[in-house]
Amino acid sequence: MELDERKLTILRAIIQNYLETGEPVGSRTISKYTDLNLSSATIRNEMSDLEEMGYIIQPHTSAGRIPTDKGYRLYVDMLMQDKQAEMDNLRIELNAKSEKLDSILKEAAKVIAVNTNYASMITAPRYRKHRIKFLQLTQVDPESLLTVIILDGNIVKNNLIHVEEDLTQETLLKLNLMLNTFLQGLDLQEINASVIQKIRTESGGYSSLISEILDVIATSMESEEVEAYTSGSTNIFKYPELNDSERASGLLNALEEKKQLTELMYQEGDSDRGIQVYIGDESPLEATKECSVVTATYHIEEGVYGKIGIIGPRRMDYEKVVGTLKRLMSELDQIFKKDKQ
Amino acid sequence: MELDERKLTILRAIIQNYLETGEPVGSRTISKYTDLNLSSATIRNEMSDLEEMGYIIQPHTSAGRIPTDKGYRLYVDMLMQDKQAEMDNLRIELNAKSEKLDSILKEAAKVIAVNTNYASMITAPRYRKHRIKFLQLTQVDPESLLTVIILDGNIVKNNLIHVEEDLTQETLLKLNLMLNTFLQGLDLQEINASVIQKIRTESGGYSSLISEILDVIATSMESEEVEAYTSGSTNIFKYPELNDSERASGLLNALEEKKQLTELMYQEGDSDRGIQVYIGDESPLEATKECSVVTATYHIEEGVYGKIGIIGPRRMDYEKVVGTLKRLMSELDQIFKKDKQ
DNA sequence: TGTTAGCACTCATATTGTTTGAGTGCTAAT
DNA sequence: ATTAGCACTCAAACAATATGAGTGCTAACA
Fold it and tell me: How many separate helices (H) and strands (E) can be counted in chain B?
């Protein structure tokens, strides 16, 4: 059987109607909804065909039709081809007060959630390989030493170390110089035994201190727990089909744990395939089998990127979601570009 | 009417039974449950009295009784008097891998949530008045300057500032020295116009840089958004009485926003009254009117403390909750003490 | 005087049956 | 190829009924 123009029109009409109402849509509705001027009976025949082809389904014998995942998929693919979703009058404004990355991200997650009425999650950029850009030890008070580690992309990490021995200003300077000399530009793998050995001999003593510093560096760099922020998790209560306590609980749990979702978003790794849509069962995550997940990638610099995800019901307003995401991306890009120059 | 020993026993039995089952408890149940060896009829009489006194209530004419807030209050107060909740065999173990404050707190929230099966929230310690302990500017690369600000209690804040002018190592040293001289030990209020004026004249030029630095300092210090972490929000689905979507949504929202809850926890400010219990309407928060909130305070050093909160249904297992909190407190105390020495 | 047995009464909940209406599939006519 | 008409299905809404846990009250009892 062939999926001709008319069938497509009807399918689109069914889906759009279902997106709005969340109720199965019947033939009479479509007969009036579209400008095809066809009677409900004709529509019924077409619907019957569409069902046979697997794009729609009846939840029970005498109900209207609802789209299957396959139907949604077709619809979304058509949407995506539609050139760019015209930048409409969405007012997305990031109130990035401070320029701190984390507050920008939190704000971004919130903006998305508020604008779309779905749940959102955003991850901090993940670096392929962290490299040390700069290192500094500073004596804060007689007992504590502050270590500041700056990684590629200006990620700043700091830790306080307790020290017993009193270090002179001079020693510190020497240590700083030495550490930077040996470690600058290295990633975690490259800090191997031989490098460490060199540092040890070079430093002459302070062995326990050095160990502690290296420890701190290691944990700072390997911290592969990507930071992630969620917003609007309670939006899911707005959609009756997610509203039973079992599902809601599972979903909220996923949003709280973040880990699984992060994996999902990063699963196709480095690819910058722009916007990805997972409809229902297409998602590998148990918790989101009844949902759709839309993910997008934002870039900070070459090879440094983070992800945004939107989670909502299957019948999410894909057009709006994709539009909103695109807007936000360009907004983020601008912020980071400004940040760079 | 008098609240004699027997009435108390019966009340306690009612509450305990209700805590377990969540169902209204009838006279026959109590008659068998307690070792008072009284018939259900007698119990009925007593219950009638207890109801008149306002400790219990019938949800509808022919149902068993459930405790009122007043009843819970009495029960909780009795509990609290019971010396210390004997340190039972709760296995609370903080896997504080890193010694970073935030990961300790996240872990603590999780431990609480897992152990009690309620939702938990923990706030990072709030300082009465932040004072500057130490300041440092460092050139990271030709365009960016790292400012590290260490506040009382070793809170480290850092920011990157973009600079156009190229600063010599010397200038930086001078600026560092100067800033520390003028600002060390001050809180935000004390950094007034006259101090700023002095810094400006002393620095000779770099006016825009100085402004930027002062800005950064101000935002770092006033950031009165107390960090807060939640865990186990989805536990609330385990209690049918909170499980309708309206309530659940409100609660989860409160847990997501965190702000209101933080205010609740800090509302009696500095007082270290140990463990506080808000039962139902006693809480000023709309979202938690159907819940109980138990809060506790942990101390890092004199005047520096944070809060932990547990949110669950009215019929929460107060005994367990209080016990768990006490355990956790001592655990935290130890960690921070070790951290100090 | 406190306790108990007995009984009529209440009312939420569960069960069952009935009605309604949206929606379908099929067939015959256009 | 399209449409009108009709019988059929079934979820959802509603009503009527049964069930049973639990109460309050009274009268008997220790």
Answer: 11, 11
Which of A242, A245, A257, A260 is the best residue to mutate to test the B interface, defined by the most B CB atoms within 10 Å of its own CB? A245
For chain A of 341 residues, list the mean pLDDT of each consecutive stretch of 10.
91 95 95 92 96 95 94 93 52 57 89 96 83 89 87 81 83 90 89 89 83 87 80 94 89 95 82 82 94 92 85 96 90 73 48
Phi, psi of A300 (to 5 degrees): -105, -45
Q: Is the CB of B49 under 7 A from strand D?
A: no
- Collapse the DSSP code of A228 into the 3-class scheme (helix H, G, I; strand E, B; otherwise coil) and give the result: strand
In this structure, the answer to whether residues B244 and B324 fall within a common structural domain is yes
Residues in A closer than 8 angstroms to B339, CB to CB, are 162
SS percent in chain A: helix, strand, coil, step 5: 50, 20, 30
Is A26 (CB) below 7 Å from strand C? yes
| Structural domain for B35, as ranges | 5-67
Is strand C within 7 Å of residue A25 (CB)? yes
Same structural domain for residues B50 and B171? no
Q: Are residues A205 and A153 in the same domain?
A: yes
pLDDT digits (tens, 9 = 90+) for B29-76: 999 989 999 999 999 999 999 999 999 999 999 999 999 999 999 999
- Indicate the pTM of the whole model: 0.87
Q: pLDDT-derived band of residue B93, with 50, 70 and 90 as boundaries?
A: low
- Tell me the Ramachandran region of residue A130: left when phi exceeds 0, alpha when psi lies from -120 to 50, beta otherwise: beta
- Pairing between strand B304-313 and B119-123? antiparallel
| Residue A310 φ then ψ, to 5° | -120, 135
B113 inside domain? yes
Chain A window 64-83: residues with CB closer than 7 Å to nucleic chain C are 64-65
Nucleotides of D under 7 A from a protein CB: 2-5, 8-11, 20-26
Q: Is residue A93 part of a domain?
A: no
Residue of A160, A215, A221, A338 to mutate, testing the B interface (most B Cβ within 10 Å of its Cβ): A160
Residues from chain B contacting residue A136 (CB–CB below 8 Å): 138
